[in-house]
Amino acid sequence: MPIRHLAMLVALLASPIALEAQLPDVAKAVIAAAMEQTKQLVRYDGSYTRIPYPGGDVPADRGVCTDVVIRAYRAAGIDLQKEVHEDMRRAFASYPKNWGLARPDSNIDHRRVPNLRAFFKRKGASIPVTRDPAAYLPGDLVTWNLTSGVPHIGIVVDRKSADGARHLVVHNIGSGPQLEDVLFAWTVTGHYRYP
After folding, report:
1. Domains located in the chain, CATH noted
2. What is the rounded radius of gyration, in angstroms, for the C-alpha atoms of the chain?
3. Global pTM?
């Protein structure tokens, strides 16, 4: 293959249109739902709330980082509230004991980053953590420990940073769902591709 054809092929594969065509339908739906959330006014509120099960959600005008993920996956047809709860019922001992619970609680378990990390790891969705931005694909999930030590989660989307070096992330760190260049802003603790 002539070098100019190879260069054209590489450029095509790197273009957003080519990348989107390669994404699985679930990833496309998760990304679209995450991007849609950035248009919503959401007050940061992680308080315990009784919600229906399955398919439950806190009021749409409230939420935290995990709610961005839960809502995006639900729009793609995956109910993480149900999946996490069922897995915790099967293997409660495999989940963190940070909250002193004696049994799973479908109202809150899926809204906790450490539980989501345990769930994705148990489902074989873990990908090695690296500082290589090319390893993080649109639709991937990333978890961090913020500077304060608080766990956080976001969704890698198909938009790039201003310098073109990294994909952007949709997350809620206190100002509602935002699209930001934060992939390596904090210590990465997990990288997941689910399903």
Report:
1. 3-192 (3.90.1720.10)
2. 17
3. 0.89
The string of pLDDT tens digits covering residues 76-131 is 999 999 999 999 999 999 999 999 999 999 999 999 999 999 999 999 999 999 99
Q: Which residue has the tokens 């990288």?
A: 191
